[in-house]
Amino acid sequence: LSALTYSVPPGHVSEAAKMGGGTSKGKATNYVVSKEEAAKADSESKPASSPAPPSKPEAVAPPTTPSPKAAPSPAPPAGAAPKAKAAAAPPKADGVASASQVVGGNWSRPKGPSPEDELVVEDWKSKGKLHFLEGVWCAVPYKVTVVLGDDMESEAAKTNAQTLIDAVAKEAETVFSHFIDDSEVSAINRLGVGELHKPSQSMKKVLDMASQLNRLTRGAFDPAILPVARYYKQQGAAADEAEGKRLASVSKWSSFQITDEGVKKTQAEAQMDLCGLAKGWAIDEMSAKLKEAGFSATFVDWGGDIKVTGTHPAGRNWTAAVLEPPPEEAAGTEAATSSEEKKYLLHAELRDGQSIATSGDYLQVLAPGMSHVIDPRTGGPVKIHGDSSATVSVVTNSCMLADALATAAMACGTVKAGRALLDMWRGAGMRDPIQDYLLYSRWGPRVCRLVEPGLEKKELKEDRLGRHEEAHIVIVGGGLAGVSAAIEAANARAKVTIIEKEESMGGNSAKATSGINACGTRVQKSQGVEDDGRFFERDTHVSAKGGTSDLNCVTMLSTKSADAIHWLMDEMGVPLQALSQLGGHAKKRTHRVPPRTDGTPVPVGWTIMQHAKAAAMAMPNIEVKTSCTMKRLLHKEDEHGVKECIGVEYEDASGVQQLMCDAVVLTTGGFGFDHSEGSLMSKYRPDLVGVPTTNGSFANGDGIKFGEAIGANLIDMDKVQLHPTAFIDPKDPKAHTKYLGPEALRGSGGILLDQSGRRFVNELDLRSVVSNKILDHCEPYKMPDGTEGRPWAWCLLNEEAQEKFGKPMLSFYKDQVGLFEGAENTKALSELIGCDEANIVESLKEYAAACDTKICSKTGKVVFPTKVTEKDTNLIVARITPCIHYCMGGLVISSGAEVMTESKTHAVGKRQKIRRLFAAGECTGGVHGGNRLGGNSLLECVVFGRLAGERAATIKQKHGGLFDDGQWHPVKLREVRATDEKYGQSTAVYRFELHGALQTTGLQVGRFISIRGELDGDTLTGYYSPISRPDDEGVIDILCRTDEKGGPIVNLLTSLQPGSACMMQGMGGCKITPHISGGWEYAGRKVNKISLLCGGTGLAPAVQIARAYIHMLGDFPDQVPSAKEGGVKIVYAAENSGDLAFVQAFDALSARFPGLVSYYLVLNKPPKGWTQGIGFVDQDVIRQKLWFPPADDHVTVMCGPPIFEKIMSGNLAKMGYPGEQYYSFAADNGQ
């Protein structure tokens, strides 16, 4: 049945959220919108199955004179649905909530937009803390909001702001307006061929931008179109095609030569129109000058293009709304600018420094159906029709760039072509990549938004999280994983109790110094780092060799990494703008907090925990119990051996307590400190007992032990990571807990020397490699009492490496703790080390040469953060040794953070979850394998902590079966499993999460689902039979082809990444249900014999039914029939062997239950050596290979293309099968 997919034409996208824009002079106007008003508009206008976007204008710019009346629009394509009703504009404006971005833990709870926020603005205005500056520049209205900085005098600040922006606007007019005869651009336009013009600095900046844009858009953006644009504006529909083509040939950016010397023309008629770029330039300049002047926040709106700094007075991000374009017939008429109630279909949240520009087709037209937008590549106006882009909005940091790209995307004509152009500007290779966009066309309407990998649309998430009852969640452990889980659970309306054994929260997370990894972040893009999940996952798996790195967990870690960083930055206020590249990484992806203004490094783990703790403590539904030691997990077990966690037992100052709850999240950390008898370290790594550690005394594996006690699976418990650079304190070399020598020591350019003064390792290799090199190569440490300690090495930093690491932090290690010692030169260093100076000199000469050639032939090092030479002075060194740092092993979890145990039946699958028990952080295993990649621990805490918190919070669903109501529901993709070896070539299982971890689908065996989503502005829909069982909790699995034979829906599925969402609906089917006496029931009668007649790619229902049958046999062994009394028989017909899929699944099932599961293949075009059926399925095949003759305990289910099922139904009828004894999916009415 998976072959039955189709692509809905644009006209059927009526349930998609519609967003649009428009402008005076072809520029759309953006406005401020409130969340409450948006929600009100949503409730009034959205269909039951799909949320509508919010709306609300703050102010409407006066329209310019409309162009000639447009003719009626052509009819939309056949079958197009009527246009969906848009949301009406609410009466007031507002913004979107965001957290304060404060360093050091002074976190303010994020506020959502509320009616009180409007009062805040009025209050600030009345007190002179905020001013609105309004007027008209160049016949285009502007409105600038300025929020005063500290110690500003109100009226003086207002006057200064007005002076600053007026000066920029005046410069924009005198430099860039071709309507002014004595402007600089007019002087350029009057140049003769070969004459030179020396541009001003402002003109040069804009010309450079224009040249880059023209080249990178391959001519879609061209500001030299003035001659042809002017001609079409004058002539409209009467324009002569030949003259238009002639003018188009000279209206090219190539008609100008722009060099360092200046600007020259190569065509006499060539002229520039820089007005659009100039407006964006002016807005950027105004914003920058106001910020330099000390204004704490600004909102600069000139003619609908907007740039913001800071935040809204209510402490949240600014928001701009975009106007929905009118119908085609209203384009260019008074109706397009009427004062009637407007409709707003997008609100874009703008962070500090972001801009939005919008281009539309409707406020100006050259003639009916003829846009004012010129396509520079064809030299003619873009045609206005239902499938052309009616509006394009672009968000970047530069308003000038956003304006140009919106115009270029409009010139592309269609939504799909415009999207292709804009996607070229998303990568980190761009100095200012696109951060959001929207394209809109009227038929449907079709809406195309920028989709970030692994992100769920906000409206779908709100819908999904609005369907459960409040739950009580207990989180054991107050490190970053626990606090992340708590915040996410609280945001999902749960009551949360955190149990922490120490006096305060933080754990090892607060001690982390390396940073937090992520790929595809805003920070990376802004610094030109091109990175994505392919590289990050590869690096993680390479580091994990020798252990288990679950593919789906690693994919989840990677896909959700950027979201984790942005959550910490935007919601927690952690300024993770610094990037570094640690050992084992192919890309610069480790995020840190920038140093303070005096150069003092800011410890990343401590900073994150300060902000996260402050956020948690500010939430009224989070309770924190400190100095509480967990004693055990409370659980129960049913008659089938399924375990369920129901609470925790812990001890506080009052004694032993029991706390019952709806779900438990374990975030208790690893076991790196406890080396006592009976400890996990002594059990799994006795060879490391006594080895120093960087862990606190709290790291004794409590959660792992208690999870194992109730049956949780453990994995990789012998995989313990040694960090290569723990400091040996010469005053206390035997200390069990040691200071960690941060990864940044080597990342900043520190090198390692042995006791003879020679390098011996690539300092930026994996931690495991560096540690093993020290242990294998270096000498044991000589203790003061004459005994020998662990092998050790020297860590050497020159002046440049010290500066890069941060001298204030080094001062702590050197002057306060005494871990570093200074050496003026190599001679002094050799005396300190106790080796021959020649060894050091030779080693540093070799290293300096390797720095020059970018490769060290001795160690393979290819990244050299700092050049260290034998001539360096002011050196410092510290003694370092590998010590226990991290435990890769722990509780087995799914990629949804569920704690797993052994399956009791083993009928299908070997693992099942412990109900209501989740885990995250170092107490889990199976992510990092044999060696954790540096920077992945904090990331794991945030990603899986948030997943665990949300899944625990949503445990109490209002409806036990999600799809039993026949409505569309949002579902989130958890993982994709390639199943080429299991089910056949080009197959995959897509696992989607139900809304609750204990929720089931509500579908009987044999029922199928419809899946729907948007791609390129189109809605794609397909049908699948789940292969998961009806009683499977929390997930639904669909098995599908991933090649072109899977139909158009495959394009949608392959575009999804873990965390992405789409819509799903329960449909009809044959509805096979358990019989009261055991076995199966169909149409009111018990059936023992099931025949499956399959054709084409429609085999998934057969897999589902066969798996359910086998599972029943595992649950009820007394129901296992003899081969003559019952079982599943399958006939599978296909065109050729390449069309066969899922056959391996039946091989496995028939091998497990010989005689009870059999199948027979029929190929129309068989390969050489074929031994089964040839041609088509006829009555003889049915008699011989399926259950025959028909009987009351028999049902035949057909699944395949409709024509196949129709022919087979005819055969069965002719063979005497009563209609109630066979079922056809194609004939099902969906009820």
Break the fold down into its secondary structure elements and pairings.
Blueprint: E1 5-7, E2 23-24, E3 27-28, E4 30-31, H1 35-45, H2 115-126, E5 130-137, E6 140-147, H3 154-176, H4 184-189, H5 201-216, H6 226-235, H7 241-250, E7 256-258, E8 263-265, H8 275-292, E9 297-302, E10 305-309, E11 318-323, E12 344-350, E13 355-360, E14 365-367, E15 370-375, E16 380-383, E17 389-396, H9 399-411, H10 415-423, E18 436-441, E19 446-449, H11 458-464, E20 472-476, H12 480-491, E21 495-499, E22 516-517, H13 522-526, H14 533-543, H15 551-559, H16 561-570, E23 578-580, E24 590-592, H17 604-617, E25 622-625, E26 629-637, E27 643-652, E28 655-660, E29 663-666, H18 680-684, H19 702-709, E30 714-715, E31 720-727, H20 743-747, E32 751-753, H21 767-777, E33 780-782, E34 788-791, E35 793-797, H22 799-805, H23 807-816, E36 820-823, H24 826-833, H25 837-853, E37 875-887, E38 890-892, E39 898-902, E40 911-919, E41 924-925, H26 936-953, E42 968-978, H27 980-983, E43 987-993, E44 1005-1015, E45 1018-1024, E46 1035-1041, H28 1049-1055, E47 1061-1074, E48 1080-1082, E49 1085-1087, E50 1089-1095, H29 1100-1115, E51 1127-1136, ...
Parallel strand pairs: 20-21, 20-29, 21-25, 29-40, 38-41, 50-51, 50-54, 51-52, 52-53, 54-55
Antiparallel strand pairs: 1-45, 2-3, 4-11, 5-6, 6-9, 7-8, 9-10, 10-13, 11-12, 13-17, 14-15, 15-16, 17-18, 18-19, 22-24, 23-24, 26-27, 27-28, 30-38, 31-37, 32-35, 33-34, 35-37, 36-37, 39-40, 42-43, 42-47, 43-46, 44-45, 44-47, 47-48, 48-49
Helix pairs in contact: 3-8, 6-7, 8-9, 9-10, 12-17, 12-26, 14-15
